[in-house]
Amino acid sequence: MYDIKTRQEVLALVSQGHSLNSVSKRTGISRAAIRSWQTRVDPLPRMTGQSRPCPRCRPAPGPPANPASYAYLLGLYLGDGCISAHPGGGHYLRIACADAWPGLIEMCRTAIGAVRPEDRIYILRKQGCVMVTSYGRHWPCLFPQHGPGKKHLRRIVLEPWQQQIVDAHPWELLRGLFHSDGCRVTNWTTRVVAGETKRYEYPRYFFSNLSTDVLCLYTDTLDAVGVAWQRANAKNISVAKRASVALMDAHIGAKY
User: Is residue 31 part of a domain?
Assistant: First the structure.
């Protein structure tokens, strides 16, 4: 018998497009066993005891567990996340995190665990990044922005209950968005002072996204917390004023 975590990890490899033969060689598990896990009807939810009702599926829907962590995870999902269906039922939530930021990977895992403590979390390693992955039945309920195609090619609008969470935890959403698609850089310029050219350096925050809806969500939330911003171009938002950079430093800071 193989434990639930092993089965989840093996089925995750298959759902990523790996052949049964390659997964079998990689894991040492027979193709027949893997095929049987694939063809069972909704095997994993029953095995993992995921009968606990989703907060959004109740007769009187409520907010997810730990709204602050949800706001952060929402930012990560809108930036570098996706949800995909499993052939046997249920869905995978995947958040891409660069290997260069181990702190971000751990924060992502912690947020998923806080929002859905009953769902297992595991890491799938890719070239230059990892996919922080969780299997569950209710990820589309928690992220109704899920849909076919790329996010920047479809409308992204928060549900009223999501907006309430963002209003209560704006910095958590901004942190999630920034951790996905932002960077803190040091810019420089020169000025002539008393006939002498001097170099000045100053920090600056950038956020880039192809979705105009996600960009608007980011700038609306910056407005709500009093951060001044400007468009660097059609897909990039800049925060450069000293007081606003100080706010971003206090609540977000550089990735690590």
Answer: yes
How many Å apart are CA 160 and CA 63, to the nearest integer?
Answer: 11
Asked whether residue 131 carries a pLDDT value surpassing 80, the answer given is yes
Task: Please name the residue that has the structure tokens 């089965």.
Answer: 7
Instruction: List all residues 6 or more positions away from 234 whose beta carbon is below 8 Å from its beta carbon.
Output: none
Residue 194, Cα to own-chain centre: how many angstroms? 50
* CATH at 186: 3.10.28.10
Secondary structure class of 132 (helix, strand, coil): strand
The boundaries of the domain holding residue 193 are 168-251
Total structural domains within the chain:
2
Instruction: Please choose, from the candidates 189, 221, 223, 192, the residue with its C-alpha nearest in 3D space to the C-alpha of residue 204.
Output: 189
Beta strands in the chain (DSSP E): 81-85, 91-98, 121-126, 129-136, 182-193, 196-208, 230-233, 236-239
Q: CA geometry: angle at 17 spanning 12 and 18, to 5°? A: 80
| Burial category of 73 from C-beta neighbours within 10 Å (exposed 0-12, middle 13-18, buried 19 and up) | buried
Using one digit for the tens of pLDDT, what is the confidence trace for 48-91?
A: 444 456 788 777 788 888 999 999 999 999 999 999 988 767 88
Helices (H) and strands (E) in the chain, counts: 11, 8
Collapsed DSSP state (helix, strand, coil) of residue 134: strand
Q: Are 189 and 200 in contact (CB under 8 A)?
A: yes
Query: What pLDDT score does 40 carry?
Result: 53
Quote the pTM value: 0.77
Mean pLDDT of the chain: 87
